[in-house]
Specification:
Protein name: F-box protein
Strand order of the largest sheet: 1-2-5-6-7-8-9-10-11-12-13-14-15
CATH class of the domain at 77-93 and 140-172 and 195-451: Alpha Beta
Number of helices: 18
CATH topology of the domain at 77-93 and 140-172 and 195-451: Leucine-rich repeat, LRR (right-handed beta-alpha superhelix)
Helix content: 25-40%
Distance between the termini: 105 Å
Structural class: alpha/beta
Radius of gyration: 32 Å
Strand content: 5-15%
InterPro entries: Leu-rich_rpt_Cys-con_subtyp, LRR_dom_sf
Length: about 500
């Protein structure tokens, strides 16, 4: 009874919970609530170089941070396909989707396979090129998923200016088509392609190339050129796209890319050894040249291009200033088509096992008058005929760059004597070139003002003649690191290390 009485009196109600507690003033939840989005965006853009911490304040700041993000490199394709990427970042102008082309069905493995900017998590069953290629085909996103993602990106980012993508919509090619064609030694052209090339020339020289002609081109290559793909839709929705990087490129892809009328920078990658086999030919390049006439910079890699494709690019893309050709796949006779590129200023060859074994008659190899820069990186220059034809095309070049090239000996280097306007010469990793071969040309180039020699082991400091040393003194810029010994000597200069009888080995021992 006593316990019930105590409970009934409510002793707990006599205790004041706020007694002795200091009352704090009420503060407004968000002091920036009165600021407009435009003003707050202006403030956030000047806070720091990395505005990411500001996105953690509240949902509004998170949304505004997404509006300030102009570029993005995607790692997960579902983030795009679900619509979250375009909602989170509505003002994207530069998007890289090359890292999200593989699905995330399997768990990530510890085996990483990397080629340039592409990195793949391999399983233990992928151990040779064939198994790696099968693994990639199984793990990449589906073509329908690719189209949905690109269309979603095009609808929500109409101001897109740069896109990097890997096209998984590959037609079924016969693997034998990737083998080098049998070349006739008489005219340098494969006999079975004469009829096809004559048909291409007739259609290329016509005044208009309609859709039926384009479909006939693609039918010859067994490619379905349905214009309903994601790239064709992107060309309609993003007319301001200026730069495109496309891997796994095919003739079908080039048909869609030809709709980008304002495209200026284009990088196309076809076959990548050890990754995938898909290529594009002269047919696709001809269609591309007809549509993208404003190209300024073009890079072709892993393709089956020859005279017809390069000539089509030169005749239609009259603003082309920089051309990069890399990897194997270029067929005979392509050098003879370079003179069609009237505004070409920079020609770069990268990882070419053969330059052009049969460049054709010398009267067809003409000089490019606007060509100023010739760069050869990791190229095999043992092909004397191809290199000689290349030098004839680049007779008016002003800058020469050789990096890690095989076969650049004194005899091959002497072919450059016809280039009399050279002002800049850069040699790196050319082990066969000697001091005498270098001196023979450097002494004759009166306009030379910059010389860079790095890691050319056959060029010795002790073989420099007084005349060559006098020429070095007149240069505006000289970088002389011909071998590792000379580099080490410069690094140890003044330290006493490396000298005979150094300060630690004097007679009588240290004092």
């Amino acid at each position: 009874m006593l316990l019930k009485a105590v409970r009934g009196k409510g002793l707990g109600n006599k205790i004041d919970p706020n007694k002795g507690v200091t009352a704090f003033p009420v503060v407004c939840a968000d002091l920036t609530a009165g600021l407009s989005d435009e003003l707050l965006l202006h403030v956030l853009s000047h806070v720091s170089d990395d505005p990411y911490p500001c996105s953690l304040v509240c949902k509004r700041w998170l949304r505004l941070h997404g509006m300030l993000k102009p570029s993005l490199k995607l790692k997960e394709w579902r983030f795009l396909e679900s619509g979250r990427m375009t909602t989170r970042f509505p003002n994207l102008a530069d998007v890289d989707l090359s890292g999200a082309w593989l699905s995330s069905r399997s768990k990530p493995n510890k085996i990483l396979f990397t080629h340039n900017s592409i990195t793949i998590n391999l399983c233990t069953n992928a151990y040779d090129p064939d198994s790696i290629e099968r693994f990639i085909e199984d793990q990449q996103v589906s073509p329908s998923s690719l189209d949905r993602g690109i269309k979603l990106l095009a609808d929500n980012c109409p101001g897109l200016q740069r896109l990097c993508l890997i096209d998984v919509r590959r037609p079924t090619y016969n693997y034998n088509s990737f083998r080098r064609r049998e070349v006739s030694k008489t005219n340098g052209v494969s006999p079975d392609l004469n009829d096809q090339y004559s048909q291409m020339d007739a259609k290329f020289n016509s005044n208009n190339v309609n859709e039926e002609t384009n479909r006939q081109f693609s039918w010859q290559q067994k490619v379905d050129v349905s214009p309903s793909g994601g790239l064709a839709y992107l060309a309609q929705k993003c007319p301001t796209l200026q730069e495109l990087v496309l891997n796994q490129c095919t003739d079908e892809s080039l048909y869609a890319i030809s709709a980008f009328e304002n495209l200026q920078i284009l990088r196309l990658v076809g076959t990548v050894s050890g990754f995938y086999h898909c290529t594009f030919t002269d047919v696709g390049l001809t269609i591309l040249a007809k549509g993208c006439s404003r190209l300024v910079k073009l890079e072709l890699s892993g393709c089956e291009a020859s005279y017809d494709g390069i000539s089509a690019i030169g005749q239609c893309c009259f603003m082309l200033e920089e051309l990069t050709l890399s990897n194997q796949g270029l067929y005979e006779g392509w050098i003879g088509a370079l003179h069609f590129c009237g505004c070409l200023k920079t020609l770069r060859l990268e990882s070419c096992k053969q330059i052009d074994p049969i460049p054709g008659p010398s009267e067809h190899v003409q000089c490019c008058p606007a060509l100023e820069v010739l760069e050869l990186v990791r190229c095999n220059l043992r092909d004397k005929a191809g290199f000689s034809a290349l030098v004839s095309v680049a007779a008016s070049v002003k800058e020469l760059c050789f990096q890690d090239c095989w076969g650049l000996d004194d005899e091959t280097f002497k072919l450059l004597e016809t280039c009399r306007q050279v002002r800049i010469l850069s040699l790196e990793g050319c082990a066969l070139l000697t001091t005498g071969g270098l001196e023979a040309l450097v002494m004759n180039w009166k306009d030379l003002h910059t010389l860079r020699v790095v890691y050319c082991n056959s060029i010795k400091d002790t073989e420099i003649t007084p005349a060559l040393a006098l020429t070095f003194s007149t240069l505006k810029e000289l970088k002389w690191r011909p071998d590792t010994k000379s580099l080490l000597a410069d690094c140890l200069l003044g330290t006493g290390v490396g000298q005979i009888g150094g300060k630690f080995f004097k007679r009588g021992g240290p004092s």
